[in-house]
Write a structure and sequence with these properties.
The protein is an alpha+beta fold. The protein has a domain of 206 residues: Aminohydrolase, N-terminal nucleophile (Ntn) domain (Glutamine Phosphoribosylpyrophosphate, subunit 1, domain 1). 40% of the residues lie in helices and 18% in strands. It is built from 20 helices and 17 strands. A 6-stranded antiparallel sheet has the order 2-3-1-9-8-10. β8 and β9 form a beta hairpin. α8 runs antiparallel to α18, α11 runs antiparallel to α17 and α14 packs across α15. The longest helix has 22 residues. The radius of gyration is 22 Å and the shape is globular.
């Protein structure tokens, strides 16, 4: 019954799988799996590349490029964080080992890079992993942006063990809900972590970053990487979208809006009153809005469980959330912008979410979590957390998480040799929590408008990880960057 409601919603609005894709072998392109799959095959654009067909969601940017014997298909928003031409960066990948060369790239935005070579299909995503990529385990060669696309295409049922896990009291009691390892709600579908590439030839994933040993860096080098990433983001966005940036009492989104404020680039500010908003923030938010002179929206949403938009937003994100408040709130922002008198004269809105800052600040390095204490599967389980304050632990629940992380540890290559001196706590936070929680939250927002990570740069992250630990372990490192670029915004209190 609920799937019928989701199908009706998609048929009426088209607001699922925005920016999405499904890549199949030519002989498997069939849309005969029911009404929902038929809608996908009717609406998605079909692009033939080598022995494969890519079905790409309406309105999604894409292009192909031939370089030597490699055919590239780039799906989504992409730009180079150092300001070079994306095409030149792609051509450079073919000079030598393509997979190894991916570790040298720093292409921002939200995209998937597909490379078709003789005998292989390779797929990687942006540094943050904000363009989700899913693949089938076993011998089946198929890749998609959303796990549901693969599940519908091949009639894959939901995994009973995962269903039990997400319905367990320990999971429902979590403040931040996301799955362990790189699992999905479907048994034979996995999510691709950032810094990895899916290879059809090998039937799995391979790590391509780090490509060199971790080097000690300085605050000045980090600030230069901030400048490069934020300038590249701003330049790209203003040519295509009307930027929407969250205004809060924190530092991550403030660093993003600093780049727009300093250059006099207009943006719309938005503050969610129903999500992690406190009275203490009110004065800070008001001051930032006044200093920047932006058009500022306060958004509140009285949501009832079972609301169709909420259900569909959670479905779009892989059905790992009990609810999708970000999607519901940003849909109100979309409606507010659409009702402006000049709505038809301006570019469509895109939300620049302040993710990436916690990678810079070393969220998992707090306390005694340094690499000197060792890092293994149990460390992953401990950082994820399987115990509930209300419900304690459960044997089956804990066993599921342990199995998921054992698989992830091996597949994602978390051994010290592969990480080349980079702190595994930082890499784990980046490649697991951000990919498995933050990216799905963006997929709830996609129903309202495109969503881009504000700080999406591999070089920014690796420069931050190279800083002395004492310089990273607080919001001060990002606040000091803001002060150096915009003293008036840097002087405002941080909550």
């Amino acid at each position: 019954m609920q799937m019928d409601r989701i199908t009706d919603f998609y048929e009426k609005t088209g607001r699922l799988f925005q920016g999405g894709f499904l890549i199949l072998r030519k002989d498997e392109v069939t849309g005969s799996g029911g009404r929902f799959l038929s809608l996908i095959h009717q609406r998605f654009e079909k692009v033939h590349v080598g022995d494969f067909v890519a079905l790409i969601a309406p309105g999604t940017t894409w292009f192909t490029l031939q370089s030597d014997d490699v055919t590239f298909l780039v799906i989504g928003d992409v730009f180079d964080n150092d300001g070079d031409a994306v095409e030149d960066r792609l051509r450079a990948l073919t000079k030598g080992d393509l997979i190894a060369n991916l570790g040298n790239t720093d292409l921002g935005g939200r995209h998937a890079i597909v490379a078709i070579t003789e005998g292989d299909l390779l797929v990687a995503n942006d540094p943050f992993g904000s363009r989700s990529v899913h693949y089938c385990t076993g011998t089946r060669v198929a890749v998609a942006s959303h796990a549901a696309l693969l599940a519908h295409q091949f009639g894959m049922p939901r995994d009973k063990a995962t269903t039990a896990f997400v319905n367990a009291p320990q999971y429902l009691d979590r403040i931040v809900c996301y799955l362990p390892g790189h699992r999905t709600v479907y048994r034979n579908i996995r999510r691709l972590p950032p810094n990895h590439v899916y290879s059809a030839r090998f039937g799995g994933i391979a790590r391509f970053w780090p490509h060199k040993p971790c080097e000690e860096t300085t605050r000045e080098q980090l600030f230069d990487r901030f400048d490069a990433a934020l300038n590249a983001l701003r330049t790209f966005v203003v040519a295509r979208y009307t930027p929407v940036i969250s205004i809060t009492g924190g530092v991550d989104t403030r660093s993003v809006l600093t780049a727009f404020h300093n250059t006099g680039t207009p943006f719309t500010g938005v503050t969610w009153r129903d999500l992690n908003y406190t009275r203490q923030e009110a004065e800070v938010v008001s001051t930032i809005a006044e200093k920047t002179g932006c058009a500022h929206l306060y958004i509140s949403q009285t949501r009832t469980d079972g609301d169709l938009l909420d259900i569909c937003a959670a479905y779009n994100a892989g059905d790992i959330f009990r609810a999708a408040p970000r999607g519901v709130l940003m849909d109100k922002v979309r409606a507010e912008i659409a009702n402006r008198p000049d709505a038809k004269e301006v570019l469509p809105p895109a939300f620049l979410i302040g993710y990436g800052g916690e990678i810079v600040r070393g969220f998992y390095r707090k306390g005694k979590r340094g690499p000197e204490h060792g890092f293994n599967v149990q460390t992953m389980i401990d950082l994820y957390g399987v115990a509930s304050r209300k419900h304690g632990t459960d044997k089956a629940y804990s066993a599921y998480a342990a199995a998921a992380f054992r698989e992830f540890y091996q597949a994602a290559r978390f051994d010290p040799r592969s990480l080349k001196g980079f702190d595994p706590n930082d890499v784990f936070y980046w490649e697991h929590r951000m990919a498995m929680w933050a990216t799905p939250t963006m997929e709830t927002i996609d129903l309202a408008m495109p969503c881009l990570v504000g700080l999406n740069s591999r070089k920014l992250y690796e420069t931050a990880i190279g800083l002395p630990v004492e310089q990273r372990m607080s919001k001060e490192i990002i606040l000091s960057y803001i002060r150096s670029r915009s003293p008036e915004l840097g002087a405002i209190q941080v909550i």
